[in-house]
Write a structure and sequence with these properties.
The structure holds 2 protein chains of 2 kinds. Chain A is globular, with a radius of gyration of 13 Å. Chain A is of the alpha/beta class. Chain B is α+β, with helices and mostly antiparallel strands. In chain B, a hairpin with a 2-residue loop joins strand 5 and strand 6. Classes of the chains: A alpha/beta, B alpha+beta. The complex binds fe (ii) ion. The site of fe (ii) ion has 6 residues of chain B, from loops.
């Protein structure tokens, strides 16, 4: 399967925003996990995954997200999901993932939350 | 609300099983395939830590073939007896609570802890255990629903078949690798034996120590320069080593005679290519044309050679190369009846016999190659070291080589 997956990352102050794009196959999966791992190691404890550019979550994609969520739980980091489509929400809810993350409509909302606290 | 989730779950399961089918039937190698498959399964059930283990009956253990969240511990293995496996349902999940207390669990308590196993799925293909799937805690913290158990069973079945195919493939690859090793060993033994034979041939002749080895080396160098394939180069090398094997049956007195040979003696000597051929044609060489090259190493392109008086068009390139290599070595080494030629004289001799005894193109290639070796224009000189060993280079003033 050719990879048509890209992952862009940006740091906004102490928050890291991951923006996955395309269809996650296993190659992309490894990259996204490694990327978040690096930030964990550097001490980042606030993450946003912006799903605006992802149309479809397949099982491999769900597996990657599961891994990241779990690491966040283990290290008591805060993870926000933003810009989810209905399909994303349905799948993540069904998988029991959303109960471990904060969900926001827009990336900006999550940034405000992470910067100011509740 | 429940119905909506059920529908989402059903659609997700169906699409995941389709993903799994695609991953396991892809052209990726086994490990990559298994890692993808594991990602699919862990994604289906939101399991962050999981491992796919392959069972090796010979070693009676299961080893991690692909892991997720357990990567740091690739050395984990489960000791498994066939009797353990019989107590498990095929491709169905066994919850950790049910696993605890079983002989399998008791024996591998530490490994299960390191794997973080909460659910264990023995993988069976055609009633044969091929491995297992270890799944950790689910993010949802929920127990598996009936429909999820069914989906897991379908996925497990798919994984089991893939593992079994991989195992067959691995066995086949191991066999191929083993055969290759055997062949290489055999080839080396063969070469060593032939080398020993060649030494025995040369030993008979006081004057031609290592003649066969040098002829083999020169011929292989020319064949290489002509762009021959590796296997064919090896063939002409072997032919060079064995070309004079027929001399073994000829009286040493004739071979080492200092005076001019009588007609009868010359006729006896001239039987050697044919005798070599007779001896060697019974051997099933792994190389093509070895015996033909040998039979014709004293033929000339003008048809004046022996034993078959073949002419240019009837002679193979290999026979022509061998002929030149043999003649050149005779020129630059001492013989019972004459002293050696200098390199310059040998070049002149090759030029003189070009088109009558020797093939024109092969003469040119040989002389060019030697000139390049002397000028240091080749990666690895092959002719030169042999000439150095027999002291043929000390006789040469620089810049006197034959210009074709
Ligand atoms: Fe000969």
């Amino acid at each position: 399967m050719a990879s048509n997956f890209t992952l862009s990352m940006k740091a906004v102050d102490d928050v890291v925003v991951l923006v996955p794009k395309g269809y996650i196959n296993d190659l992309g999966a490894v990259r996204i996990e490694q990327a978040s791992e690096q930030y964990f190691d550097k001490g980042t404890r606030k993450f946003i995954i912006n799903f605006a550019d992802m149309y479809f979550i397949n099982s491999i994609g769900a597996s990657v997200i599961t891994g990241i969520v779990n690491k966040n739980l283990e290290r008591e980091a805060v993870l926000c999901f933003t810009n989810m489509k209905k399909m994303h929400r349905d799948v993540f809810e069904m998988l029991g993932i959303t109960k471990h993350v904060r969900v926001f409509r827009e990336e900006g909302d999550a940034l405000i939350f992470l910067h100011e606290g509740e | 609300m429940e119905r909506k989730t059920d529908l989402t779950r059903l659609l997700f399961s169906i699409s995941s099983l389709a993903d799994l089918g695609q991953e396991v039937s892809s052209a990726k190698d086994v490990e990559e395939k298994m890692r993808s498959a594991l990602y699919v399964v862990t994604g289906m059930f939101s399991v962050p830590r999981a491992a796919l283990l392959a069972y090796t009956p010979r070693r009676r253990c299961m080893e991690v073939l692909a892991g997720k969240g357990v990567d740091a511990a690739p050395d984990i293995r489960l000791c498994v007896d066939a009797v353990h496996l019989k107590s498990f349902p095929m491709n169905e999940l066994v919850a950790c609570d049910d696993l605890a207390g079983s002989p399998l669990y008791e024996r591998n308590r530490e490994a299960f802890r390191r794997l973080g196993t909460k659910t264990f799925v023995p993988l069976f293909a055609k009633n044969e255990c091929v491995g297992a799937l270890s799944l950790g805690k689910r993010l949802s913290r929920n127990a598996y629903l009936r429909s999820e158990k069914d989906a897991l069973k379908a996925a497990a079945h798919q994984l089991a078949i893939t593992l079994q195919n991989a195992r067959l493939f691995l066995k086949l690859s191991e066999k191929v690798a083993e055969n290759k090793r055997l062949y290489e060993n055999m080839r080396q033994i063969y070469l060593d034996t032939i080398q020993a034979f060649a030494a025995a041939i040369d030993f008979k002749d006081d004057y031609t120590k290592n003649h066969s080895l040098r002829v083999a080396t020169y011929a292989a160098a020319v064949a290489g320069d002509l762009g021959w394939q590796e296997k064919d180069i090896e063939a002409i090398y072997i032919a060079g080593l064995l070309h004079d094997i027929g001399k073994i049956v000829i009286d040493s007195g004739i071979i080492n005679k200092r005076d001019e040979l009588t007609t009868r003696e010359r006729d006896v000597i001239r039987t050697h290519p044919q005798v070599s051929y007779s001896i060697l044609s019974k051997i099933r060489f792994p190389w093509k044309n070895v015996v033909q090259f040998i039979r014709h190493h004293h033929e000339r392109i003008d048809g004046g050679g022996y034993p078959d008086s073949l002419s240019e068009g009837e002679l193979s390139e290999g026979a022509k190369i061998l002929n030149l290599a043999d003649a050149f070595d005779a020129m630059v080494t001492d013989r019972p009846y004459r002293d050696r030629l200098t390199l310059e004289e040998a070049f002149r001799e090759i030029r003189r016999c070009r088109g009558t005894q020797f093939d024109g193109r092969i003469s040119d290639v040989f002389c060019d190659l030697l000139r390049k070796e002397m000028d240091g224009d080749v990666m690895q000189a092959r002719i030169l070291p042999q000439l150095r060993k027999i002291g043929a280079l000390q006789l040469e003033p620089a810049g006197t080589l034959y210009e074709a």
